[in-house]
Amino acid sequence: IEQTAELLLCLSPTEVANLKEGINFVRNKSTGKDYILYKSKSHLRACKNMCKHQGGLFIKDIEDLDGRSVKCTKHNWKLDVSSMKYINPPGSFCQDELVVEKSEENELLLLELNPPNPWDSEPRSPEDLAFGEVQITYLTHACMDLKLGDKRMVFDPWLTGPAFARGWWLLHEPPSDWLERLCQADLIYISHMHSDHLSYPTLKKLAGRRPDIPIYVGKTERPVFWNLNQSGIQLTNINVVPFGIWQQVDKNLRFMILMDGVHPEMDTCIIVEYKGHKILNTVDCTRPNGGRLPVKVDLMMSDFAGGASGFPMTFSGGKFTEEWKAQFIKTERKKLLNYKARLVKDLQPRIYCPFAGYFVEAHPSDKYIKETNIKNDPDELNNLIKKNSDVLTWTPQPGATLDLGRMLKDPTDSKGIIEPPEGTKIYKDSWDFGPYLKILNAAVGDEIFRHSSWIKEYFTWAGFKDYNLVVRMIETDEDFSPFPGGYDYLVDFLDLSFPKERPSREHPYEEIRSRVDVIRHVVKNGLLWDDLYIGFQTRLQRDPDIYHHLFWNHFQIKLPLTPPDWTSFLMYLISLNSQGY
């Protein structure tokens, strides 16, 4: 059965604001069903108000001075809602959690995944693995090459070129045979559409050799390969699979793609199982599978680094001093480390590997971002994990190979992890910027931008309106100074107008400065604004200091799937000119 998410309860922004710290009892008035929400600062957990024992209703536990537990009205069973564990009787059950999400309108949604643990369907007992039977080789960033018996599977191949326009570049030097490795793969998994996972420069090289290679992606709301036709790359064997269903590769090998609880419209993770041994790759998921994941897998890998956002490095004005930004980054990175360490402790994999964070802002014009955007150290995370558990850890280097059979039998086996040969180049020290910047620069002089009416055409195509926000867009040079002859204009998204001055009504305001080559490339090709925001190609100010989720979510995820029709736009202008307008 395909995994689905059922909406159980929706709370309005006002109801969300009225939630108190600790335990909240809430009811869906239309269905009569009851739920419990536990609030701890900004963190929320939720479950059905139904005891696992015999379905009794929970009420406040007056004996609990900490305000974390509830008591069943049938047999006095007690549930600690902060941990979702039953404390009376102790060590008995865990309560099934619901997925907590926020809608675009800032409503709070409670969702139930069904089935919640789809990997438990058709369970298989682990079989003994021969040495060399299962090998995992790290290539770069989030790219792993898995040998699984006589099959080879590759995760998220970003092995050449930039990501997010020109903002991210590979930190590690991939093995020199990376293209041969890709071509030898039996299947490729691409987790989501971000260009450090879906790398068109990499796939272009692969398509030149093996256009029919099987590629698997999850059935996300926005298709992973939404921009394939526009890219011009010929890949003929892309398979979109439903969530939560085992995909059988051969008698020993199967995999299952799961959705992210926070970004189900675009993010996924994967479980690979070979002879009953599970490998869990949560990739970039914020809350993979709504927080429900298999425990005691043989190998778990996840992101760890942080820094994959323009916030706060690209912001200025108000509180955004250099001191504030530095402290915020330090605090957030520490939070991420602690969260990953707790997750590993809870899931208890045999081996854990931090990956999907090995990028660098290498272009000289992004020197400030590189110096400011401090990322987590994988060894620091691994040391934190070792303090709190007996989980084995692996900090990978390009070309290093982990032999799962050896590591499971004897973690001290010197052949369990084979490091790359001595003298192997680990870190890149040069990047071929030229060809990629040439593509971006080609948009600057495009015919479209000789006509100021492109602004109305583009934002009408984008389809975002009826929202009280005024944005000033400024095209800039490399240093974010106004580009000579560039556009500087206002967009009022309340009525999608383009006024010469800010309106007199009360309104939130944002100023977005964007490097001219990137913004025009994005506009011309109808690309998502992640290239601008995550790629550090903007500088932003806002008044008041409010994150406009609806605006950014639309331009980062929800733009139309086909680009603007610039040919018809230009033809229309020619026809007007011929008529003397």
From TrEMBL:
A single GO molecular function term of this UniProt record: CMP-N-acetylneuraminate monooxygenase activity
Keywords, ordered alphabetically: 2Fe-2S, Cytoplasm, Electron transport, Iron, Iron-sulfur, Metal-binding, Oxidoreductase, Transport
Domain Rieske, residue spans: 11-109
Main location: cytoplasm
GO annotation, biological process: CMP-N-acetylneuraminate metabolic process; N-acetylneuraminate metabolic process
UniProt keyword annotation of Phosphoprotein present: no
InterPro entries, per database record: CMP-Neu5Ac_hydroxylase_Rieske, Cnh, RibonucZ/Hydroxyglut_hydro, Rieske_2Fe-2S, Rieske_2Fe-2S_sf
Pathway connected to this protein: Amino-sugar metabolism; N-acetylneuraminate metabolism
GO cellular component, one term: cytoplasm
CDD domains the record matches: Rieske_CMP_Neu5Ac_hydrolase_N
Catalysed reaction equations from the record: CMP-N-acetyl-beta-neuraminate + 2 Fe(II)-[cytochrome b5] + O2 + 2 H(+) = CMP-N-glycoloyl-beta-neuraminate + 2 Fe(III)-[cytochrome b5] + H2O
Top-level lineage group: Eukaryota
Location in the cell: Cytoplasm
Pfam families the UniProt entry points to: Lactamase_B_3, Rieske
Gene3D superfamilies in the record: Ribonuclease Z/Hydroxyacylglutathione hydrolase-like, Rieske [2Fe-2S] iron-sulphur domain
Record field: transmembrane: none
Function: Sialic acids are components of carbohydrate chains of glycoconjugates and are involved in cell-cell recognition and cell-pathogen interactions. Catalyzes the conversion of CMP-N-acetylneuraminic acid (CMP-Neu5Ac) into its hydroxylated derivative CMP-N-glycolylneuraminic acid (CMP-Neu5Gc), a sialic acid abundantly expressed at the surface of many cells.
Family stated for the protein in its record: Belongs to the CMP-Neu5Ac hydroxylase family.
The protein's name in its UniProt record: Cytidine monophosphate-N-acetylneuraminic acid hydroxylase
Organism of this sequence: Muntiacus muntjak (Barking deer)
